């Protein structure tokens, strides 16, 4: 396919045929080809769905991964999502888990938001305006829809595959489509992969994390599977910690915490810091364990600070800082009930040397200095200590001391205000003399913001300063009370990709990543394709006499591709608009057009059911580009229509000049001359018979009696009929409407012979009986009369032509010279339109005299060059007698009027052999 | 799909390069990958993640015995397909060459390239079954190597299509010749256990594989049943196993591929006992840490426990270590790994390791504690308790010889101190 990108249509047909093969090996390889050639042709899967599901367990494991994905996309596009699947059930899960779980997933509001989030991430082109239609997207459940049930049933055995890729693909199907109560069967195989496929552990854990965040109760009983081994790589340890945090419950948290306590003694201190962070997350999620968590964390802080004293080890500092960060996160939820923790932290300032840790504790002190009963009592002493140690602190710690002092003053009661002001003044004085720009700037900023701290020094109190003081106090409250929104809060860029995809592992969309198709987007096209499936499944219906003009798909091809349907729909829309503009003039000019108009309106109603917004969603990129390329041609279309209207007027004036052929030469038959010409009449006996007009003439001087015609192949016709698949045993080879009893000299007689030609090209052997004698004769068939006119207007012609492209379209080039003789008789004419019209009429007359076609339109070019005939276009429509399939003929001219014209003749027909033969015949007629 | 497959040595050298699609991948990507290994894993390829994002490609890698299997792609594809395929390549090469290391690959470069050529078609896995591959590419042996050296005309490529190409079961050829009419079933189990710092057995489970070596003529039908299948928690099957008999009756029904293959892997969870105990004891005081580790038999399995080793890393900030054992040998490797080789536990005394660790200056107590990894092997018993009930063989002209064997070894057995 990569070598021949232009042959997509024929390759799609090949894929379609190969999907019907009986060998699982072939079907598996075809799935790979499907993904490469036409991954969006999901309608192609329709007729193969059941067989593909039944064959899936037997297919080779590598192709299973791809085929599972193809089938899943088809089911979603065809039926939509399952109402009781986990995607919807996450609603219930989140409500039962409380708001803590929502926070983990990143949605603060409610479960509905999470559900919509999953939709948006998994499904293609999901838009906000459809949020209200979620219920409509999932009208099926696995118990009411056979396809969904079959999909789940055929993927269940694959959970036992030895290939972890197959297991994850099957688990993804269940994750998206299975009812909630059936999801448990997926968990065991997934977790077993962690042990049995070590190489797959990292990828599998990444997917498990997504599953666990949405449905933690699924994995909660299996927490032991995520206990960490010393030999695990660091990234695996981090993932397991995150999963353990996500799935921890009231019942499992004691065992998990025992594990966490053991982890804290690991030599890998980076991992230990992660464990400490996990403890905080668990405490926030399960409030009942907060007290024991804080106790453990405080003990760890004291222990780590004592270690840091004796050894300068960076890893330990990280653990210490993380422990304090965890305490801070837990305290934030309810500071008043944890003031003892804060007091103990502040007391430990003496022993903690790490600057980052000291900064954190000072921040906590400043933030909660006015909360509770105990903290306010120690505030004066702590503030004095901070002022005393200011000069010896590190930069970040100094900044935090300034902030904390400011917060203390803002919230301080009146009794301590004067004392705090003294301390603040002292600290600011120290800060303004500091070596660091940051500290000096911060000091000046705060001193201007809190002017009353310097008012004490000046001892001045005026009304002007009082006004400024109020404004600055407002500013200070705003800044230090933490009410300002954080500009560094990360935006929610977290995206979830399909489980089992590469994008899910690398956390960005890899080239070629395709979300799931929009639910039920195949509904409309599937309904309209129902008759097509019927046609394809039943060979008898191909011979039906159904009106091909009444429905697009009755005579349509089972190989219609999605792109063609899209193109056809857009073409229909454009043509309908054009037709509306032209309809009134046509009706006004010709009475005969009324029937055509009615037919066109019927076709339009049928097309309208296809022209919906949903169809555009299925449009492939190439179809979109094709449509865009066609758009600029629209103005030409309009002018062409105008020309067509005028040319149609002359339709009736064309003479059909039947061409006579010699069937029997008088010199061989004692004076009986028989000429024949193909007739445009339709046989009343059977559609397989072609009407031939016979002309008998007696050129001798004697009477001829008992003239009749019989078929020489009467005995062989049985075999011939057997060989003809479309034949009927009841159809005779020839049907004669009458016999001639007596033919006098110089007398002529006409007869109609109905003939069944078994071959398009081979002559039919006949015997002419006269006066008891048998004279052999050969009746040569003319394929141009194996069709009959199919009246249709230009719009219908173009729609049908667009459906018969690719392998149903054949073209040949030839030259046309007849117009040169006619032009010589009109040399005196100076009008170029007459010349073009003359050429158009000349060729149309020639075609219609030799073929049983219906002239749809003759388009003449709109050009300023009198001599240029390029753009002349003739369109003829017909249908095959035996099958009633349409045959469309288009002839396009290039060249100058005074020279032989180069013509391109094109035939669109489903019957390949017939189409090619007809094309050759048309070319022969022209030349 | 995959564009290219490289085999890298332990020093980052490109040993084999196989381009899969029309878009050629420059081998400079391997240099980028090795710089990545040096930067993120200190040159230890076994510590690198299986999926790596480079500026130009997405890389998948699998590490085996000092050889890195690297694959490249630029488009979306299932990552587990790539990782499983690379694992399969490693398994097939191990099957062909007997072992997998840098020297063996270099010695058999042509064979490795031929195998890669057959295993993948335009970036998608094609033939991955060892049975089929061996029909197309003959495994190496001394005779063919000698002929190749002397005459230079020998070729190990088969001159006809493998029979399995027409077979309905892709893992078995339609005609198996010279079959010895034997079938052996071997249960290989690994015991995973974790003992926490309190001495409690936190987790204990057995991960087992049932390996079958089949040499049966024709297309035999085998049925394997267990005495106690209910103890099995999780299973994974070879493609030859039929799902319906297992779902209905917990019976394995299959047509085996010829030769050695892994029929099934399973897990038995929540076991209660381990055959041996390891009791570490570390006490530290004023800059010195005293170490004592005792090993003994507990819950005697009835068979000899062999190849016992205890391995742990010395904690950081250790100035010197003085460790001796009353049984076996103690080695301290360059990366501060202590390796105690015990072998078998004698009957008359319990092996114990004792000694002193001197802490760095200024450190009074040990605050990070090592984890002891235990290895052992027991022949003749499956510790999970899984037993084979019977094995039936049909569609063979004669009754074949059947052999059964079981063994257990330590998998991830950790004792925290």
UniProtKB/TrEMBL annotation, chain A:
<keyword id="KW-0653">Protein transport</keyword>
<dbReference type="InterPro" id="IPR016024">
    <property type="entry name" value="ARM-type_fold"/>
</dbReference>
<comment type="similarity">
    <text>Belongs to the adaptor complexes large subunit family.</text>
</comment>
<dbReference type="Pfam" id="PF01602">
    <property type="entry name" value="Adaptin_N"/>
</dbReference>
<dbReference type="GO" id="GO:0030117">
    <property type="term" value="C:membrane coat"/>
</dbReference>
<dbReference type="GO" id="GO:0012505">
    <property type="term" value="C:endomembrane system"/>
</dbReference>
<feature type="region of interest" description="Disordered">
    <location>
        <begin position="531"/>
        <end position="586"/>
    </location>
</feature>
<keyword id="KW-0472">Membrane</keyword>
<protein>
    <submittedName>
        <fullName>Os01g0973300 protein</fullName>
    </submittedName>
</protein>
<dbReference type="InterPro" id="IPR011989">
    <property type="entry name" value="ARM-like"/>
</dbReference>
<feature type="compositionally biased region" description="Polar residues">
    <location>
        <begin position="535"/>
        <end position="554"/>
    </location>
</feature>
<feature type="compositionally biased region" description="Basic and acidic residues">
    <location>
        <begin position="568"/>
        <end position="586"/>
    </location>
</feature>
<feature type="domain" description="AP-3 complex subunit beta C-terminal">
    <location>
        <begin position="603"/>
        <end position="762"/>
    </location>
</feature>
<dbReference type="GO" id="GO:0006886">
    <property type="term" value="P:intracellular protein transport"/>
</dbReference>
<dbReference type="GO" id="GO:0016192">
    <property type="term" value="P:vesicle-mediated transport"/>
</dbReference>
<dbReference type="InterPro" id="IPR026739">
    <property type="entry name" value="AP_beta"/>
</dbReference>
<dbReference type="InterPro" id="IPR002553">
    <property type="entry name" value="Clathrin/coatomer_adapt-like_N"/>
</dbReference>
<keyword id="KW-0813">Transport</keyword>
<dbReference type="InterPro" id="IPR029390">
    <property type="entry name" value="AP3B_C"/>
</dbReference>
From TrEMBL, chain B:
<dbReference type="InterPro" id="IPR001392">
    <property type="entry name" value="Clathrin_mu"/>
</dbReference>
<dbReference type="InterPro" id="IPR011012">
    <property type="entry name" value="Longin-like_dom_sf"/>
</dbReference>
<dbReference type="GO" id="GO:0030131">
    <property type="term" value="C:clathrin adaptor complex"/>
</dbReference>
<dbReference type="GO" id="GO:0006897">
    <property type="term" value="P:endocytosis"/>
</dbReference>
<dbReference type="GO" id="GO:0012505">
    <property type="term" value="C:endomembrane system"/>
</dbReference>
<dbReference type="Pfam" id="PF00928">
    <property type="entry name" value="Adap_comp_sub"/>
</dbReference>
<dbReference type="GO" id="GO:0009630">
    <property type="term" value="P:gravitropism"/>
</dbReference>
<keyword id="KW-0813">Transport</keyword>
<dbReference type="GO" id="GO:0031410">
    <property type="term" value="C:cytoplasmic vesicle"/>
</dbReference>
<dbReference type="GO" id="GO:0006886">
    <property type="term" value="P:intracellular protein transport"/>
</dbReference>
<comment type="similarity">
    <text>Belongs to the adaptor complexes medium subunit family.</text>
</comment>
<dbReference type="InterPro" id="IPR028565">
    <property type="entry name" value="MHD"/>
</dbReference>
<dbReference type="InterPro" id="IPR036168">
    <property type="entry name" value="AP2_Mu_C_sf"/>
</dbReference>
<protein>
    <submittedName>
        <fullName>Os05g0383100 protein</fullName>
    </submittedName>
</protein>
<keyword id="KW-0653">Protein transport</keyword>
<dbReference type="InterPro" id="IPR050431">
    <property type="entry name" value="Adaptor_comp_med_subunit"/>
</dbReference>
<feature type="domain" description="MHD">
    <location>
        <begin position="180"/>
        <end position="416"/>
    </location>
</feature>
<keyword id="KW-0472">Membrane</keyword>
